[in-house]
Specification:
The chain contains five helices and five strands. By secondary structure, the protein is an alpha/beta fold. Strands 2-1-3-4-5 form a five-stranded parallel β-sheet, sandwiched between helices. Helix 2 runs parallel beside helix 5 and helix 3 packs parallel to helix 4. The longest helix is centred in the C-terminal third of the chain and has 19 residues. The N and C termini lie far apart (33 Å). The model has no long low-confidence stretch (mean pLDDT 94). Bound molecules: 1,3,4-trihydroxy-5-OXO-cyclohexanecarboxylic acid (DQA). The site of 1,3,4-trihydroxy-5-OXO-cyclohexanecarboxylic acid (DQA) has 10 residues, from loops.
Length: 160
Amino acid sequence: MNSPISPSDSTRSIHLVNGPNLNLLGEREAHIYGSTSLDEIVAELQREADARGFHLTAFQSNSEGEIVNSIQQAQHRSAFLLINAGAYTHTSIAIRDALLAVSLPFIEVHLSNVYARENFRHKSILADVAIGQISGFGPYSYTLALYAAVRHLESSEESL
Ligand code: DQA
């Protein structure tokens, strides 16, 4: 799943980052997160990206530092980030700093509607520096985020 990115097509590359416990999708709290695995979500997004002439790479880690590394490595390889930082969304200044450091546009993604859950999930450390946030549509949150990323990148191409 942690696929390499070709440097030659970086303007049409979108990098998806998933944080802690998202490797357990499909098994974990299925009443909240559903029955679709992360591999299935990534495969579907890759199909959607390919159909639009974009390349999607994906990375998942349970470790904050590895997520920071993946964001840093995307700087010259990708044009856009989709990130579901899991619980780090609510706590990680390091991930926020990495996103600011690479200056790539990004969308914050959540399967669940974080605002309909515990108070501690209502605060995002990332949202105010994101292009936008998509929350509450299960696996379709990722698809919506991909559509928004493609639209954003295509409008940037048109304005060149
Ligand atoms: C989540 C929401 C977070 O609050 C939680 O810690 C997760 C998953 C979501 O996709 O709904 O791990 O990011």
